[in-house]
Specification:
This protein has one domain (21-304): TIM Barrel (Alpha-Beta Barrel). 48% of the residues lie in helices and 15% in strands. It has helices at 14-32, 46-52, 73-81, 98-112, 134-140, 165-182, 196-209, 225-235, 238-247, 249-257, 261-272, 290-304; strands spanning 35-38, 58-61, 85-91, 116-120, 150-155, 185-190, 215-220, 279-285. An eight-stranded parallel barrel has the order 1-2-3-4-5-6-7-8, surrounded by seven helices. Strand 4, helix 5 (134-140) and strand 5 form a beta-alpha-beta unit. Helix 7 (196-209) runs parallel beside helix 11 and helix 9 (238-247) crosses helix 10 (249-257).
Amino acid sequence: MNKPSSGDVVSPRPGREADELSLASNAAELVTCGSLEMSPDRTGEVDAIASLLPVGTKVYVNHLPHHALADSLPTLIALRSAGLEPVPHIAARRVTSRVELESFLQRAQREALVAKVLLIGGDDAQPRGPYADSLALMRNGGLADYGVREVGIAGYPEGHPRIAPAVLDQFLRAKLTLAAGQGLEVYVVTQFSFAPTRIVEHCTVMAREFPSLPLYVGVAGPTEARSLLRFAQRCGVSASLRALKDQGMAAVRLVTHTDPGEQLAAVARYCLARKSCNVVGIHLFSFGGAVRAAKWMRGVIARES
């Protein structure tokens, strides 16, 4: 076979080029349909975030330790005013009373038109009020009475550091049953992981066990290595950390200084390989850097357009 001369233009194989375009398109769709989170004390960043993201993008507002639910209201209101969809975290073990919960839900619906919440247990050693976990809050919180129509619940690709897998599965099934009885839609937002294989395995299990349950895959947003590793240890992403340590510190520096593209590509390939996929989008953990995360999301969307 004759080799091409230096003046010849060698085109990529059509099949490979089409695969790459399809992957980029699917990745952009996962980001466009995705979400990110921010801290309640960063209300001043809302306009910058809104200028980068599609109208209606879901932005979650954290329920931080030692903070009241009402502390997130100014940010929730600002997000709605900026054309984004505000979604408050509610950490069950940090809610001091049913009165606090009801007052917050009333104001959140009235002032920020909140219709979605993300329920988490919270990692406080002892509950500050009547709710030991998110299931107890769902059971006794009367969410639908205060304008809530959709509930996000947490998923764990690497398991939970303090809850056995069988118990997690039991809790998930109980929440789905409870939500159906209350007229609530449910979706899952997973914890982030540094290991794409873990993410894909979890998505596969969820698709098999709960094929109609919408799934948002958590991805660690761009941040500094020290912050990312600290959050990973706090969030129980132990399998990822062990795998990185086995490869040495060079791998830790490489993974923690690159953007979330590898994880996004793994999810996009997973979705392309399946005739039906219940992954709706990604959820970006911003670790206090929501504007930086929004810029990354904007970049992925722009590359496909």
